[in-house]
Amino acid sequence: MTRKALSYDEIHQFQEYLTPHQIKRLERQHKKLDKQEQSTGVKTEKHHNERVQNIKAIVPLNDKQAHYLQCLQNCNQIFSYGSAGVGKTYLAISYCAQEFLKKNITKIILTRPNIGIGGKVPAALPGGVYEKMEATLAEPIQILKKILSPDGFEIALRHSEIEIVPFEYIRGRSFSNAIIIVNEAQNTTVDEMVSFVTRVGEDSKVILDGDLFQTDIKGLNGLQWAIDMVKSNPKLQEYTGIVEFTSEDIVRSGLCREWVFAIEKFYKKNNTPTYETIARK
């Protein structure tokens, strides 16, 4: 199934930029797709039930992953940071997808800052918001499709039960009964993070992951600021889980692992911060 129309939320969000004719055309597309979904409603519900029955337990591969899963299950907000290849994205997205299938939440919001390597703004890509974000969030999207099924993912996306948007789009919004995953959170600014963390409702969960070693923000970035705030505030710690991954926690084998170890060795030799020294802050 391919995405043929803006979601209901997107039509409302961008209606000031659309002509009356475009709005009517998009509404007709939705009505047509709604009828198609209604005609296969029994099949869709049966498919959903089968997915729920076949949910496989998420098995941690080491103690740090086990701690991360406990935080995902028990905390309102979770910060995970560290080396590539430790399973940050896979565990977080798998947990969210399963919670969505079980109907413990009604919405998944997947986002990341719109900033590229070296702090450059990525070149404009064709398509709508989802199409623009699809390339930069390919891994979490693939995990969602694997667990929800491609059709289940597309239906949830069209009905705004799954939102995939740039981080800048969710500033100032309030969230209810949702899980919000902020990928590459080390590329948020402090001001952006302040605006974000103060808008999360009691019945929502926030997962922020990143690699403090690969930030493209000059000076203090939003993820580091938020972690420092939690570590210095006992009240915030009651709601928050912090998981500090190091190169020793890498579960991905082969070239990725060897590159991380080589980079660690290089920076230690040159007396610059490494994953381990950042995690110990």
Describe this structure in a few short sentences.
This protein has 281 residues and is α/β, with parallel strands linked by helices. Helix content is 49%, strand content 11%. The longest helix has 20 residues, at 20-39.
Structure description:
The chain is α/β, with parallel strands linked by helices and 281 residues long. The protein has one domain (61-279): 3-Layer(aba) Sandwich (Rossmann fold), CATH 3.40.50. It contains 14 helices and 6 strands. The protein has helices at 8-13, 20-39, 41-53, 63-74, 88-101, 129-134, 138-148, 150-158, 167-170, 190-197, 222-231, 234-237, 255-269, 275-279; strands at residues 77-81, 107-112, 162-166, 178-182, 205-210, 240-244. A 6-stranded parallel sheet has the order 3-2-4-5-1-6, with helices on both faces. α4 (63-74) packs parallel to α5, α5 (88-101) packs parallel to α7 (138-148) and α7 packs across α8. The longest helix has 20 residues, at 20-39. The radius of gyration is 20 Å and the shape is globular. The termini are far apart.
How do the strands line up in the largest sheet?
A: 3-2-4-5-1-6
Number of E-type strands: 6
Largest sheet: 6 strands, parallel
Count of helical segments? Answer: 14
* Binned strand content: 5-15%
Radius of gyration: 20 Å
Q: CATH superfamily, please?
A: P-loop containing nucleotide triphosphate hydrolases
CATH class assignment: Alpha Beta
Order of helices and strands: HHHHEHEHHHEHEHEHHEHH
Shape call: globular
| Tally of separate domains | 1
Properties at a glance:
281 residues, alpha/beta, Rossmann fold, 6-stranded parallel β-sheet, 14 helices, 49% helix, globular, disordered C terminus
